[in-house]
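Reproducibility note. Readers wishing to regenerate the assembly model reported in the main text can use the exact inputs given here. Chain order matters: entities are listed in the order in which they were concatenated for prediction.
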Amino acid sequence: MTQDKLDLLQGTLDLMVLQTLAALGPLHGYGLARRIEQVSGDALRLNQGTIYAALTRLQQRRWIEADWGVSDNNRRAKFYRLTDDGRKALAEETSSWERLRSVMDRFLTVSQESGR
Amino acid sequence: MNHVWRRNLARLRAFFRKEPLDRELDAELASHLHLAEDDLIARGVPPTEARRQARLQLGGLGAVREHQRETRSLPFLDVLQQDLRLAFRSLGRDRGFTVVAVLVLALGIGATATVFSVVDAVLLEPLPFAAPQELTWISNGPENAEQSLSGSTSSSGVFMAWRERNRSFDAMSGYFAFFNFDRRELLQGDQAVRLTSVPVEQSFFELLGLRPHLGRFFVAEEALVDGPRAVVLSHNLWKHRFRADGELIGQTLNLDGEPVTVVGVLPESFDFASVFTPGNQVDIFTPLNLERIAPWGNTLSIVGRLRPGVTPQQAHQELVDLTAQLKLERQDLGSGYGSHVVPLSDYARRSTRRGLFFLLACVAAVLVIASANIAGLQLGRAAKRRQEFAVRAALGAGRARLLRQLITEGMVLATVSALLGSALAYLATGIISRLPNTSLPLVQRVQLDGTTLLCILAATLLVGLVCGLTPILQASFSRLQDALRDASRGSSGDGWQKRTRSALVVTETALACMLLIAATLLIRSFSQILDVDLGFQPQHALTLNVEPDASVEGVEARMAYFERLRQSLSSLPGIEAVGFTDALPLDRNRSWGVAAKGQTFAEDEGIPAAFVSRVDAELFDALGITLLRGRRFTDAEAEQNSLVVLINQSMADAFWPGQDPIGKEATIGLDDRTVIGVVSDVHHRGVESATGFDAYLPIGLPDGSAAFDLVIRTALPPDSAKTSVLAALRGADSTLPTDDLRPMTWFVDRAVSSRRFVASLLSGFALFAVVLASLGIYGVIAYATNRRSREIGIRMALGATAQDIQRGVLRDTLMLSGLGVLIGAVGGIVLATGMRSLLFEISPADPVSFVAMLAAMAVVTLAAGLIPARRAARIQPASTLRAG
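Running the prediction on these inputs yields the following structure tokens for the assembly.
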């Protein structure tokens, strides 16, 4: 990869959204996008607009719900929150992500050793 | 995986809620921008710069919206929707084409589906029994149409010997084949109903693998002569006569004045008659006592279930050997006695296979014609639309997209036609399955089922592809620029297109000619059959099966009862004769051994058999059988069973060639009788089968069944005489069941029903094919004339007359159809030779059929060519030249 910003893997944005909602409670789209940018320390290449596709996917799976409300600075905004299904899904996705990471870690370590 | 379903459902829902979802997204994005701006301003960015950055961070509203739409819904549905909209618009523009195409395809698909359902139900689907491949039909000789029923049934003694000694069969059972004699009278309240009862060997239903709908089947003791009287009802009778009464089992019915217990009801899937005796209706089943029928000779139809692994051929060989052995042991087995084993499904379908497969081939030809027709029309259309496609390609539509759109259009056309065609097939199969009085076996099962719908689906896909892709064949794609350049003038694709269309039309015409020939041959065979001199006059005769109740005992009382019925009718207007017989022609079947007295036959020759009926003196007048020599019975002879007999001409010629048979002695069954008269040959066994020997005995025989057929000859049309006849008969005997009072022609209709079925369907197909072919010819000629209007204009300007032009167009038309007719005639000869076995006294090279085909095609061709020819002749040279 030539640029130093990372492209998002398919599905990882969804997991980030779920995790953010679990950690911070209900948030609007802009809030979510900012929070993800902050946490990733600007290492991700993210159009804020793509967050809405992720939100739609999660909503269609009924992992999150949305309602219109009013923000801290009195703007109308749509707030998203985790459902019970979403909480379960987050747990499952997290553990599978962990497993994948550990496999990848092991794999990359072994390859480096043998490649040496 | 729950969420995957939920997501897909949500995406499908989103497809139908585009606008509210778009509004929602716009509101959310607006709110997003406000929030981002506020945030940026709060971080010290100037307002105008904040607005710019907010938008930048979001990543472009259009892209976000597009991305969102793809995510929330199913993108291919949008494309499909567009294609469909376009297809409907373009088909709607060409309304004439669309209507014709849909009608043609719907008729083609409907006809194919209908015939396929019939073939499927009658020939392909397994018989509705358990493990039907193990079931076999066992007769005492090979089955063929000429043979009488007695020649194919077996005696109960032989049956029991076969059953005991064979190693090929798991089980053997059978039914009493002459059940037509076994009419029972059911008394419900004061209403009497006549039922047809089939006596079955006790294990018959178990052998077929049936399970009772209610109750049980027979047990062994019910088959004993003094055992409990039991009856099993057909599902149909139970449903209609007893209103599907669930409590009926164990109840007692009054049958022929005796109490009989209902022990079971058959399943709905089992229709005895449709498999074993098409055209009859069977209501009840009684247990058969094998000993009781032993003295009556060959009366048992036998069904066997093979042991697993045994083939019908092996079983056949074993029974042949067994029978040879039996003949050595027993004296009563005639030398002609044999045995024959065939799969039951072959037996049940023996008479229909050829006709139906022939029909299927014909209907396939119809579908080919229909498709060729549509392909031709599409080619013509494609030429017109070349410009449209060129423009769309120029505006950036990719080839794949254009292709997809053409296929979508073809599919729309095919789908609409298939829906209409399925509806047609649904109606048609409904009518066919309820055809009354038909002798086609298993036809009651005909329905539009899954298999047929699959076949329709396959046809639809095929037709859709053909319709969609024909225009592409024309290569208009690769020469889009050419097309754009010379939109209205003929281009290089033109010659190819004309040749293809001409070839299609010639194919259509040839196939239509072949169908026309086949149909004419069948219709002529059919009318030939209707013209057969049956030996009796079915017109103006009414028949009713009558059975005096139990109080009428003995011959004298019976004769008195008949006389009472006769008297009641004689005062009616128009009644010419009233006769009685125990075996109507084309209804019953029976044969007895006959010989001139003292005649002996060689071992391997067998004794000749005659159709024997017991009649009264007036029957010959009532049925219209001509007395050729001698005299009829006197009333006294008829009543007293004198040892006299009337025989038919064939029998007289065979036994006493060149002599006067009157006064000769003949052995009929066990008695020697004096021949007193000779009558015309009667087609007793079938309209198409040859006549055999007939013998008429006096009605006063003391033994046998008490049921007789009343035959009434009337000068009035039978239908109008019916009411008064009914009233008179009820006056004579108020309990007489009269629901089967029928015109004698009913029996003739039944005998020719399967032939009528094939002939009428094929005529329909042929007519349709000819219409299609003429449409095809018209299409090609009209199109060509249209394209040539400039040329015609020039020729007229140079002095050609309207007649010249008209003649030219007609010549083109005749060339086209002439080629088709020529090929069709050759094909017709081949086809006719192949269908020889379906013809009746008509040669395959029947000149009438071929001339009729030629005449019909000539008329149709002229009609198809005349319209464009007229139009061409009216061309105004000035205007076409200016327009070009």
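We highlight two features of this model. The first strand of chain B starts at residue 135 and ends at 139. Chain B has five domains: 2-73, 75-133+349-491, 141-338, 501-532+748-884, 541-747.
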